[in-house]
Amino acid sequence: MNAGVAVAALAVVSVATAVIGFYGLRISRTTGDFYVASRTVRPWWNASAIGGEYLSAASFLGVAGLILLSGTDALWFPVGYTAGYLMLLLFVAAPLRRSGAYTIPDFTEARLDSRAVRKVTSLVVVLVGWLYIVPQLHGAALTIRITTGLPSWVGSVAVVIVVCLTVVAGGMRSITFVQAFQYWLKLTALAVPILFIVFMLAGNGTPALSAPAVNPTGLAPAGAYQKVSLLVALLFGTLGLPHVLVRFYTNPDGQSARRTTLIVLGLLSVFYLFPTAYGLVARVFAPGLARANQADAMVLLLPGELVGGAAGDFLSALVVAGAFAAFLSTTSGLVVSLAGVISQDVLGGEVGGFRLAAVISAVVPLGFAFMTDSLALAGSVGLVFAFTASTVCPVLLLGIWWRGLTDAGAIAGMVTGGILCGGAMIAGALVGASNLAPWLAQPAAWTVPAAFAVMVAVSRATARRVPQTMARVMTRLHTPERPLATER
Amino acid sequence: MTRVRVTAPRSAALPASQSREAAQDSEVGQVFVRSLIRSQLRLALVVASGFLLILGAFPLLLAAVPGLSETRIAGIPFDWILLGAGSYPVIGLSAWLYVRTAARNEARYRDLAGEPVSAQLLSRNR
């Protein structure tokens, strides 16, 4: 690919992100603005922003790469990523909005009336956030290396710098605009090239998909256990992602939180058709792109491979821009929510602390990213989902729906889930992905039930610790708000 | 609608308007709240299991009907269409059903709990 074109695309996305971020600075001035955009964001804006934030490197590059490698087995990834939002809508969206808390630790503290629970939740949330930022930075490094030939670290460092600038400048409101813009950018960047390719192939009279969609790698198909475990991770992991949850606080009330989620589901469904199409087209027409360790770059290389010439350069630039939008938007969403947690729990909760916390939240995972190697992006993000599903998800679900949850139960469950799932991830990293037992490679199917079981059992054993405020908080979570006009 | 700046610290997150809480703290009020929570949970569980059953039926269908996954529609193998595109309408439909019914549950709660319902709300929900 023409390196100059790629660099230009990166520059345009970064500058556009920064400009929208600074525009937001002029209208965000109060603490509320910084954290949750003053809860005045309309459902369509908010839904686009959620979509923009959620569609990470794994969705933009990883899903298509994995479909290229393992065919229909990998289709469960996009389906699971979307269905996770359905679970979030069913079990979490409206009650969480009605809790009125800014962050997940705020929620658990208010629900369980316990500072200790808050501390443990904060720790887990920060871990999840950092784990999730690392694959984004790996994606950026890969994109830079493949498309410009520059050293990998340039990509990760560029993402961290742009994210720090936007978050420090504008906080959540500017992030909302940036994210909404980036959803549509990502969708365009994926849709235009693949539609062009499909029409070109059809017009050329290439024997359209006459060859069977063969497996170009000879990887063994995933077993039933792995599919189920993956689905458990994706369905329940989405519930607990900190950057996704913080978005629900920007809805004016519980009902609009539901409407927003409904729109998000539509946006995600449309989006995920395109990585699927890339995977299918690449399997048939460009199986050579399934090289070892490079399948994640397939989306970036496919336009150049199949179209070529000036048109190929233009389409490649578009895809590169979209990929960078994915890294930037997910990373900045995570940084905002992590900074919210760190600044409130460590630095005292003012705007200055938020800025410092934002820089901390972005720079630490950069260190992780330098120390670790890139796995398959969709796979490593899948592991983060497993971790979230084993820690944050049980405390949220039981906290919202079960009156018997206690602080001791919540802590015991989160620690159990975190140790089991974290242990499996570390073991996986030490042993190496190729000769890993399925139950270690996809731990969610047993770590999630274990975390739930411990949480329930310990809560039962410590039933005297159910907080006095429980009935009032449960009422608040589940009863509809009065119309805004009368609630003041 | 006017824009409201929320500048309160997080500790202000929970207390709602006083009268609303007083009405709900009574024994009868709590009965209504419990029944609302139960019906919302039941609804969520029903929709979730329905969705998972349909999703689980997809691979079973492909396995049960021989040759189905090789069938092509517009040149695309049927298993790709079913899993890669067919899942999303199921997700969307489940979500839409849920949002509608959840709002109806809440409207029923409002009627039962006798909360003053403003004219604006009436026109929106009926």
Structural features:
heterodimer, A: about 500 residues, mainly alpha, Sodium/glucose cotransporter, 21 helices, disordered C terminus, B: mainly alpha, two-stranded antiparallel sheet, 5 helices, about 5% strand, disordered N terminus
Report the C-alpha radius of gyration of chain B, rounded.
23 Å
- Count the helices of chain B. How many? 5
Count of helix runs of chain A: 21
Write the element-wise H/E pattern of chain B from the N-terminal end onward.
HHEEHHH
Strand order of the largest sheet of chain B: 1-2
Quaternary state of this entry equals heterodimer
* Rg of chain A (C-alpha, Å): 22 Å
Q: At the first level of CATH, what is the class of chain A? A: Mainly Alpha
By helix and strand content of chain B, what is the structural category? Answer: mainly alpha
Describe the structure.
The complex is a heterodimer of chains A (about 500) and B (about 130). Chain A has one domain: Sodium/glucose cotransporter (Up-down Bundle), CATH 1.20.1730.10. Chain A is about 75% helix and about 0% strand. Chain A contains 21 helices and no strands. In chain A, α16 runs antiparallel to α17 and α17 packs antiparallel against α19. Chain A is globular, with a radius of gyration of 22 Å. By secondary structure, chain B is mostly helical. Chain B has a two-stranded antiparallel sheet with strand order 1-2. In chain B, β1 and β2 form a beta hairpin. In chain B, α2 packs antiparallel against α4. The longest helix of chain B has about 40 residues. Chain B is elongated, with a radius of gyration of 23 Å. The N terminus and C terminus of chain B are likely disordered. Chains A and B meet through α2, α5, α12, α20 and α21 of A and α1, α2, β2, α3 and α4 of B.
